[in-house]
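Q: Could you predict the 3D structure of Monomeric sarcosine oxidase?
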Amino acid sequence: MSPTYDVIVVGLGGMGSAAAHHLSARGARVLGLEKFGPVHNRGSSHGGSRITRQSYFEDPAYVPLLLRAYELYERLERDTGRDIATLCGGLMLGRPDSRTVAGSLLSAERWGLPHEMLDATEIRRRFPTLTPGDGEVALYERRAGLLRPENTVAAHLQLATRAGADLHFEEPLLRWEPYRDGVRVHTAENTYTAGQLVICPGAWAPRLLTDLDVPFTIERQVMYWFQPEGGTGPFVPENHPVYIWQDADDVQIYGFPAIDGPELGAKVAFFRRGTVCTPETIERTVHAHEVVAMAGQAARLLPALPGRFLKAATCMYSNTPDEHFVIARHPRHPESVTVACGFSGHGFKFVPVVGEIVADLALTGTTDHPIELFDPRRLTALSA
Ligand SMILES: Cc1cc2nc3c(=O)[nH]c(=O)nc-3n(C[C@H](O)[C@H](O)[C@H](O)COP(=O)(O)OP(=O)(O)OC[C@H]3O[C@@H](n4cnc5c(N)ncnc54)[C@H](O)[C@@H]3O)c2cc1C
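A: Sure. Here are the predicted structure tokens for Monomeric sarcosine oxidase:
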């Protein structure tokens, strides 16, 4: 007979590991299926650091979710003793009318979030590694900072296991179908049945969720680590914020303080300048011309940063057309399937609250969190 569960979670990356934790913490019998090993580097949740912030330029609708995510991240650190969040402060830099600055200010004002507006002189005085242009300004948020993605995933897997979840690694879902009041799921090893299916597929969404009818675009993104000229001293998190800078041509870069000691440098990357790929065809080699382009752009804001190139790594964004998430009951299988995907390069800071929302949806069919923005039917021909 097929082993039976309350909920099967497919994909144990950022979102799926959080879902497995929140579901099992509420007493559900959970099976987690993951294509690769625990905490791997072939999806979207690796590379040592992710920015977190609350004055959200993407849309003020995200702010209540961020406030909850901050609480849950704090609890996750407490419950597991792992080093996850470093709130070293964050700067959203650019022209006053750039989306990065104006959008952040809109969210800060709408939600009464603590923030400061700094002009170029003040930015240079307080953060001497940075050399913004004279017309540029920044919103400074003291509670912004960074999260460690690998530690986050490991913490959620640890708590899920502790609560009794069965987590199967190197066991991809091959296919599933509706079965009685729930679903039947097939892997190469076994067939399982459950009342509910949760799909958190990351960059595999186009393959696993064809009948969602959302036109996802999977993008290759590169992260770069440089050893700053003169060493990492001025770049340590005690002295250095995370930053997102939008230049006059609307090119955005973002970066981090030096969090891994004097030898491992500081990370910087382009935001949204990827090339279309699939998880099977992604070019993992980073080419010299890419390093040159990154060093050139970073040097305009942080002249000392690109002293010596250390390493680079690739990662994938799963973009929706409007860059907002998809978190919902599956419109074609509303009784038994929940989906969380299309995080469009900005999902990590939401990981624990997405786990909570997915657990709500799978166990009760609804959630008190505001997720109207994430309804997939906005992107498809399916009627609401
Ligand atoms: C370079 C880069 C920088 C980023 N920076 C930030 C940032 O600063 N701040 C921020 O908030 N966000 C950031 N993001 C975005 C954020 O990291 C992602 O939104 C988030 O990690 C997505 O998590 P996920 O669970 O959807 O995907 P993943 O963590 O990739 O998880 C999906 C999982 O599904 C598994 N899977 C796929 N198919 C199957 C199958 N058939 N059976 C079983 N398992 C399967 C995969 O192996 C994978 O483990 C960044 C992303 C990248 C790539």
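Q: Anything worth pointing out?
A: The first strand starts at residue 4 and ends at 10.
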